[in-house]
Specification:
The chain is mostly helical and 332 residues long. The chain has one domain. Helix content is 76%, strand content 0%. It is built from 14 helices and no strands. α1 runs antiparallel to α2, α4 packs across α11 and α9 runs antiparallel to α10. It starts with 5 loop residues before the first helix and ends with a helix.
């Protein structure tokens, strides 16, 4: 890949870091954008080609994106991983005992990850080669937009009522113990303490769901193997249709995405260390750093955004961009 430039590395790093978290499909954009820009980009970034050097870049991008998400949720992951280990018992008849919200959430994430983990291991290559075609990615991007739009339009009453309860709890928390005017550093600590308290309350709400619900929500991630379908988007819609408030559906989607994205990178680490990455490792480092920073900023923005706003703008974007891409690909 002699013509893969640092500018291209920055661009694809931004695309990956933003679109992996925003419900607009990172894979769909990675398939479409190089083809829309022109032959010089497409030659370097054809994800459907089995031996494409771009596969080595994708490894770095996935690992960096997972690191960026984890950097935002690191305190939560400390609690969740701790909950997993404290739930284990040295008893073959009853090896697991769940008593706390953190323990329940840890096992919910494990259960919810099983469907996409198995499907990805067995069929990731077939999905990528067959569906990693620009025209198909554009079609599924439109489908993704329709899913997001319908998910909001027909959101169950239970999910809407849960939104109101969460908003009410947040108002009470701010009135009762929210940040007061103070020095900048003290104010920042107060804001972070409030965010941590909200995260704990969110995990307590999530842990009230059943393992069956977690499995259903997690199974939606399988659709993200189709280029154009957003992992976080369809997971959020599934969560809302199981009665979760929008912000909790987003939180669960991001927590579920972290091990899946990280595993997708780690399992393909051979592409990064092997001949596919020869001559482009410095560019991969640049792309990965950009993707990690963009992922962190994206998840921070979205966790605030989904407190009060909807998936509808992302639905409109996907439909417009998907249809526009189809038209362009058809007439050029």
């Amino acid at each position: 890949m002699p013509h893969f430039t640092y500018f291209q590395a920055v661009v694809i790093g931004l695309i990956q870091g933003i679109t992996e978290l925003f419900p607009v499909s990172s894979l769909g954009h990675n398939v479409l954008i190089p083809d829309l820009i022109g032959p010089s980009w497409l030659a370097n970034m054809d994800v459907s080609r089995p031996e494409s050097p771009y596969l080595a870049i994708v490894v770095g991008l996935h690992v960096a994106t997972a690191v960026g998400i984890t950097a935002y949720f690191w305190r939560d992951w400390v609690r969740i991983i701790g909950g997993f280990f404290t739930s284990l018992r040295p008893d073959f008849r009853r090896p697991v005992e769940i008593r706390t919200a953190d323990q329940k959430l840890a096992w919910m994430i494990i259960v919810a990850t099983i469907p996409v983990g198995l499907t990805g291991l067995l069929f990731e290559h077939e999905f990528r080669v067959f569906f990693g075609v620009p025209s198909r990615a554009a079609i599924f991007l439109v489908v993704n937009g329709v899913i997001l739009f319908l998910g909001e339009k027909f959101r169950p009453v239970k999910s809407r009522e849960a939104d109101e309860l969460v908003a009410h709890d947040r108002e009470l928390a701010v009135v009762g113990g929210g940040p007061r005017p103070a020095a900048h550093a003290a104010g920042q600590r107060a804001v972070r303490q409030q965010e941590m308290a909200e995260a704990i309350r969110a995990d307590q709400r999530l842990s009230a769901a059943s393992f069956w619900q977690a499995l259903i929500i997690g199974s939606a991630q399988v659709l993200a193997l189709l280029a154009g379908i957003s992992r976080d988007g369809v997971t959020m819609v599934a969560g809302m249709f199981r009665g979760l408030p929008r912000i909790d559906a987003a939180r669960f989607a991001f927590l579920l995405a972290t091990p899946v994205i990280l595993a997708a990178g780690v399992l393909k680490i051979g592409d990064l260390t092997g001949p596919l990455a020869k001559g482009i490792r410095p560019q991969i480092v640049v792309a990965s750093v950009v993707a990690g920073v963009a992922a962190y900023l994206s998840v921070r923005f979205l966790m605030k955004y989904f407190q009060t706003r909807t998936l509808t703008p992302f639905a409109i974007y996907c439909i417009v961009f998907g249809l526009g891409s189809l038209i362009y690909l058809g007439v050029r």
